[in-house]
Write a structure and sequence with these properties.
heterodimer, B: alpha+beta, Four Helix Bundle (Hemerythrin (Met), subunit A), six-stranded antiparallel β-sheet, 21 helices
Chain lengths: 168, 663
Amino acid sequence: MGKSRARWFCLVGFAALMLATTLPAVAVQPDEVLSDSKLEARARALSRELRCMVCQNQSIDDSDAPLARDLRLLVRERLKAGDTDTAIIDFLVARYGQFVLLRPRFEWGTALLWLTPLLVLCIGIAAAGMAWRSRRNAVASAPESVAPLTQVEEKQLAEIVAGQDRRS
Amino acid sequence: MIAEIGHFALVLALALAIVQSIAPLVGARRNDAALMGIAGITAPAQAGFVALSFAALTACYVTSDFSVANVFENSHSTMPLVYKITSVWGNHEGSMLLWVFILSFFGALVAFFARNLPPSFKATVLAVQAWVAVAFYLFILMTSSPFARLAEAPFEGRDLNPILQDFGLAVHPPMLYLGYVGFSISFSFAVAALIEGRINAAWARFVRPWTLVAWMCLTLGIAMGSYWAYYELGWGGWWFWDPVENASLMPWLVGTALLHSAVVMEKREALKIWTVLLAILTFSLSLVGTFLVRSGVLTSVHTFASDPSRGVFILCILIVFIGGALALFAWRAPLLRQGGLFAPVSREGALVLNNLFIVTACATVFVGTLYPLALEAVTGEKISVGAPFFNLTFGPLFIPLLLIVPFGPLLAWKRADLAGVSQRLGGAFVVALLGIGATLALNGQPVLPALGVGLAMFVMAGAVTDIVERTSLLRAPLGTVMQRARGLPRSSWGTALAHFGLGVSLLGIIGETQWGAERIVTLKPAEKVSIRNYDFIFDGSVNRTGANYRETVAKFTVRHNREVIGVVEPSKRTFPSRGSSTTEAALMTRGFSQLYVSLGDQNADGSLAVRIYHKPMVLLIWLGAVVMVLGGGLSLSDRRLRVGAPRSAKSHAKSSASMQPAE
């Protein structure tokens, strides 16, 4: 049973780890809130852009980890000292690296990430366009192309179409 | 003994699945009816054995048999019965058993309903279905058996993770899995079509109800998970762009695209190759979702088990099935004959545009979710991709999509008159402008949220316009209108309802994100806090004991414009068996809006940290999803009559001339 015992310990250890990270989140504490509502709003907006680095995919605004609280206090201190938003972000990136940003900067390493929507959309439009043209050409050059309608048929068709338009 | 029966039943199911994955294919090659017919027997038998296995595990949980390791790790004798049952799938092993249970159940349903399909095609479909089943039975038996015993049975279990002890979360995984696994049927049909080398409108007619069922379950599952996160995690967010949420969003997006392209295929025999590709991609993304969640490669709140051997196994399944299917696609797709032509401005064209935007949105989510992993593997650089990125990229892709939604159903097949349709949408434009004007008058600047409200109004009014136009509501006498309304296929009502639901959800999202209010304060008993004309008076807190937890409940009297409207009781629960706690937020519903109270820490002087939110129109987010599912249900009730009963070309042509086109 040695193996299953070992696996069991792994699971227990993991469960303990999970608990440490899934404790109820209360995030921003009352004592952190700045009295200046404009500064506080800026602090909140900044907090949502910054990652709590010890958490899993949580911003420091959502997280109740001590590190997140420290970062929130730090952001507020810098704001009170009169720093601009970009200055604060630059400061944090210099300290913790790009990892702290939930919205990565546009750089060589992230170019593909940012351009994905545009690229996929363009490729999709191009592919659809090409498929449509080749399909049209294939049908146009097909031998069993139908004879053009006679004048009487055209008139009948117009009547039917008009009738349908009224119905639908 | 019961656990061993469960294990043995699963092994038998595997044996049957192996037979089913080979024999019918050989039969189809040799045109041997007996061999092909085997699948019709093994599929239900497999479902029976997996059901037995699942029942065995449930029995272990209900009787709190802690000699079974899985029960010991995830259950507790004092847990209420309903959570004992739901903890069966509240863990990795059990949830995989649920996965194959649903898979085998769907396999049996296909065997039952596919009687009208050509025998060789049916045999191939069921064989493909069995390939998937074999892979997952092996996965469970080799890496994650829920029936493993402990040498010495403990007296008490370790309890289920408290945040999972909740009804919403109890129903969330089964719904999600019904969706994920339901798409396996579209996948099997697509692969079978590629193997057989032919595909037609009857294919689409058969696949669509299954896709629709899977899509409805997935929609409900996602909505339920979102609502659960909203009230259980305690900070009032409802979508976090968490990797695991993204894992369920991706199949939903591509599944939605598939639903729409299958319409084109069914009505016009066009977009065949594309539809087959989408069917493969949808289930592939379901597998990717399972991989992301189960392997723990992207650790997040949802990963309740991780183990590298499992990750590698699922990765192999992923590579074999996705790679194999795509290779088959590249090889065989050119054989499929293409159908009807259409002009760019037509209903087909609108549906292509719909697919284009949805697939782009899905690609964005996919790349955003996996990019940090890939970048770290390649360059070692660590970056984060979170909510701000997705909001910035995903949002703009959905705006044009939502703008074309009202146009789609009004455009004619083959070639449409855009100016005429715009004219018919005049009413919807007016409604949208009124929405924008009213929002600006009520809330003032900024303009962007008002435009969002306008867009939501446009989508909803567009759906109404669709029905009004189809029934000639404003032009014909009432009798004719009634007759037309009755004659309208249910799928048309379904489309309109689902599109309406989309607008409803959008309205909720805008309301919650743009006009929500929040207060974070420390309160002593008898103190009050106000938010948007609502006063919360803190009456004090009491301690209570539940079945397997203790809780501190804070009582607040709520007043609106000085009038008492009720009491809310948020609480913090402590679960001694795991030494952990949860926040139980209190919700008070006012129309479609909600007041949300959640507790923080208690201070030494008896004061309590409290977060109070006003969330305008927040319920519309999930209500919209429910409306979409109802629309899907209506559409499904229409198809059921025609499933698997392809009409002759003659009667088809006749009825399509006299009938409004569905969708």
